[in-house]
């Protein structure tokens, strides 16, 4: 990780901060486009749902998409973005008034982007979503060009008369989509909130609560993507987050699924693919970018916990890695790059009954099959 | 942690030796931090994962703890730690 500041940019520093920040900005924007360009997964004209929590990383991602769409033709991003925000205020211990306030902040922020957006509540998670969507038949070794042609043909077959549906604000729906004119965001019924709190109350440790929240959140996002016709979802995990997640998930016994849990593309859900375009940005770069270019963020309170010391696996791993990173600045990128070598094969279930309902990965039922997990531990142990 | 206040404009008391970031952090700990100092400080420095910007530049370029504060300096603390 480099150091950022007026002096960190070679000869530019004599010209002052202004030209320095231009340089940093170009680098930052280019990296985003290059990440998408290199992986060639998102098709021109495809509807993409950006999962934005209001935190630094996903807010920076939102800004990158805005930047990418405002560029000259040759460099412009060519997909159709919308944004989704999941209100988790209930499980984060916010009062109804605080939730309303966070929602209003978020709504103002999202309105300013001009993209269509959805504000959804974790309470709105229907029970029926705990099953994978239909897998779209995709030949594995097809070239990007052929894939794009296939995609365009599919769109034509669907008789895409409603082309503009992705670019205009979604109409009034069943409480999931925002109303056209700004109005006070409504909270879900208290009974639903109670149900949700009961579920989280039944979960004993913060580690398990964090996992559960993560899984329910992605299910809700995927459910929305599915019902609204999105085929890709973008999330904002940074390199730092990916490294922390790699080690946390190893500790949680999810070693066999590291590749789908942290990789650039996550196609375990069948019809909707999750893409992580910020994987090569350090949390530090994001923080500096947001600071220099006034990217607005809305900070959600952490999950409440009684334990002060070592509240969860993730906290312990975060402390460990960031503490090492301070004295050994390549720690995080080394863990990240080691994670790149993981294969996603172990996550694929052989049949539907072998699939975990929550994380949709293969159930690891045979005690003898330690391959994925051990492979992961050995590789990370060799750091 | 700081009473929910984002911006603090402070006038530091006079002291014989010039103020540096090391003293400033100690002063913040004693005067501004309201609860759980361990979430902000570790030893005499900030906790790993909290970035320090002195006049919009990374403090790593400015001498970190030894940077001598000047009149009208702005110091930002940005957390990259994840809440949950």
UniProtKB/TrEMBL annotation, chain A:
GO molecular function: nucleotidyltransferase activity; sulfurtransferase activity; tRNA binding
SUPFAM superfamilies listed in its UniProt record: Adenine nucleotide alpha hydrolases-like
The keyword Oxidoreductase is assigned to this record: no
Pfam families: CTU2 (PF10288)
Associated pathway: tRNA modification; 5-methoxycarbonylmethyl-2-thiouridine-tRNA biosynthesis
Subcellular locations according to the entry: Cytoplasm
Keyword Cytoplasm belongs to the record: yes
GO terms classed as biological process: protein urmylation; tRNA wobble position uridine thiolation
Keywords from the named record: Cytoplasm, tRNA processing
Positions of region (Disordered): 155-187
HAMAP family referenced in this protein's UniProt entry, alphabetically: CTU2
Family stated for the protein in its record: Belongs to the CTU2/NCS2 family.
Protein name as catalogued: Cytoplasmic tRNA 2-thiolation protein 2
Automatic annotation (TrEMBL), chain B:
Keyword Disulfide bond listed: no
Pathway stated in the Swiss-Prot or TrEMBL entry: tRNA modification; 5-methoxycarbonylmethyl-2-thiouridine-tRNA biosynthesis
KW tRNA processing (keyword) present: yes
InterPro entries: Beta-grasp_dom_sf, Mopterin_synth/thiamin_S_b, Urm1
Cell location: Cytoplasm
Highest taxon listed in the record's lineage: Eukaryota
Cross-link Glycyl lysine isopeptide (Gly-Lys) (interchain with K-? in acceptor proteins): where in chain: 84
Post-translational modification: C-terminal thiocarboxylation occurs in 2 steps, it is first acyl-adenylated (-COAMP) via the hesA/moeB/thiF part of MOCS3, then thiocarboxylated (-COSH) via the rhodanese domain of MOCS3.
Gene Ontology terms describing biological process: protein urmylation; tRNA thio-modification; tRNA wobble uridine modification
GO cellular component: cytosol
Pfam family, one: Urm1
Keywords: Cytoplasm, Isopeptide bond, tRNA processing, Ubl conjugation pathway
Residues the record lists as 1-thioglycine modifications: 84
PANTHER family: RURM1 PROTEIN
Homology family: Belongs to the URM1 family.
Primary role: Acts as a sulfur carrier required for 2-thiolation of mcm(5)S(2)U at tRNA wobble positions of cytosolic tRNA(Lys), tRNA(Glu) and tRNA(Gln). Serves as sulfur donor in tRNA 2-thiolation reaction by being thiocarboxylated (-COSH) at its C-terminus by MOCS3. The sulfur is then transferred to tRNA to form 2-thiolation of mcm(5)S(2)U. Also acts as a ubiquitin-like protein (UBL) that is covalently conjugated via an isopeptide bond to lysine residues of target proteins.
Name the record gives this protein: Ubiquitin-related modifier 1
Organism name: Melopsittacus undulatus (Budgerigar)
Top-level taxonomy: Eukaryota, Metazoa, Chordata, Craniata, Vertebrata
